[in-house]
Specification:
The protein is an alpha/beta fold. 33% of the residues lie in helices and 26% in strands. The radius of gyration is 19 Å and the shape is elongated. It starts with a strand and ends with a helix.
Length: 251
């Protein structure tokens, strides 16, 4: 049994993870962290990690970047693995995550969906085959409450393509530019509206042909399932950085 501490327990993703864990026999939520108290929760609750009295096996974090320092401080002190699903971290915060992984196991991914991680691999393959003969544009769509743009997933996709096309540069939208598109560009575009859960499209545009790879998330459940799977996977692991490729390889 994997005992999970859920950071961001009162948010929409928190509710999805609680529902997902309740349907499983290999894990359970034993404590939650959030500034707002969850409704009808059957686990211990605290407003911050400094107030938490219950110790678990793994932390799942689906909250806000401002929580990172207190969470990592608690996790490294208690030697508790972390599944970090929050997006919108700056470079300094990402460095802190990597530093923490020297002490504890850290599962870090901008997207917990199996399908998304598959299209990332497909995008890398397409970039390898097409080279600079095809222009690359990434379009992501999310609900109107999402704070960060572009999405962490769009950046994951762009980073994967850049592993192959190492001289690439990211261009966000194009309203500030009045010039022809350069071959080294990877265009990244964000759409915010309604209750769109998550749509990602990678366009490879060549001469007389276009290849489009896309993924559509119909509900938040796909991300909750991935986060819970990651928590169960991470229990008992050695310190280090882990991601979805490690989880998939274990199956």
């Amino acid at each position: 049994m994997t005992n999970i501490i859920l950071s961001g327990c009162s948010g929409k993703m928190g509710a999805s993870i609680i529902s997902c864990a309740a349907q499983r026999t290999d894990c359970r939520i034993i404590a939650g962290i959030d500034i707002a108290e969850p409704q009808n929760a059957d686990f211990d609750y605290a407003k911050g990690f400094s107030e938490l009295k219950t110790e678990g096996d793994v932390i799942i974090d689906f909250s806000n970047p401002v929580v990172l320092d207190s969470m990592l401080s608690y996790a490294t002190e208690k030697k508790i693995p972390c599944v970090i699903c929050t997006t919108g971290y700056n470079d300094e915060q990402k460095k802190k995550i990597h530093e923490a992984s020297k002490i504890i196991p850290v599962f870090y991914s901008g997207n917990m969906s199996l399908g998304i991680n598959l299209i990332i691999e497909l995008a890398k393959k397409a970039a390898s085959v097409f080279g600079e003969d095809f222009d690359v544009e990434i379009v992501e769509q999310h609900h109107n409450q999402k704070l960060d743009a572009p999405s962490g997933t769009a950046l994951m996709i762009a980073d994967a393509v850049k592993e192959v096309r190492t001289e690439s540069e990211y261009v966000y939208d194009r309203h500030a530019y009045r010039k022809k598109r350069e071959k080294k560009e990877i265009g990244i575009h964000s759409v915010r509206g309604g209750n769109i859960v998550g749509e990602h499209e990678i366009i490879f545009a060549g001469t007389d042909e276009v290849l489009t790879i896309s993924h559509s998330a119909r509900s938040k459940t796909v991300f909750a399932v991935g986060a819970v799977n990651a928590a169960v996977f991470l229990k008992g692991k050695e310190p280090g950085m882990y991601d979805m490729s490690d989880l998939l390889a274990s199956k």
